[in-house]
Amino acid sequence: MTLSSPSAAAAEPNAAVGPGSEVVDKTLTASRALLGVIARSLAPVMDAVTLPQFRVLVVLWNFGPLRMGELALRLGANQSSFSRFADRMVAGGLIARSASTENRREVIISLTKEGSRIYAEVTEARRQEISEVLSRLSGSEQETVLAGFEAFARAAGEPRADETLILGM
User: Fold this and answer.
1) pTM for this prediction
2) Hey, which of 37, 63, 102, 110 has its CA 20 to 30 A from 23?
3) Distance between CA atoms of residues 118 and 87, nearest Å
């Protein structure tokens, strides 16, 4: 058996470079399982919040109150269209608008108690289901999962806000 270098493999027209198809297939299967966890955690609140609205709640929970323009930027949205979107969230009691204490022309967006409650409910449901799944694994399997997810997250990097907007993450 001879090993070929990556450059030799790349020179072959049908040679695959990177992880083998089994690694990719198993990772896709795991991603579908996690997507199921995400969907189930969001299902109970979908009558109160849409996926894009939930993403706003996630950003505000993680970063605290933000200027309207900064929030739109973090979400990858146009500020003028985001303003209309925010109006609907204010009307739904999910976020609040206030004037900045530093510049009265700036609008600050923050979570309301209801917005915080929804975020916490979804996050706790997700945490519980992940905990239940992990409890079915042995200690060494849990360590393997931990190492695998740490490595995957490191390699993938932090996704841009606009990449996860549709998923409400």
Assistant:
1) 0.75
2) 37
3) 18
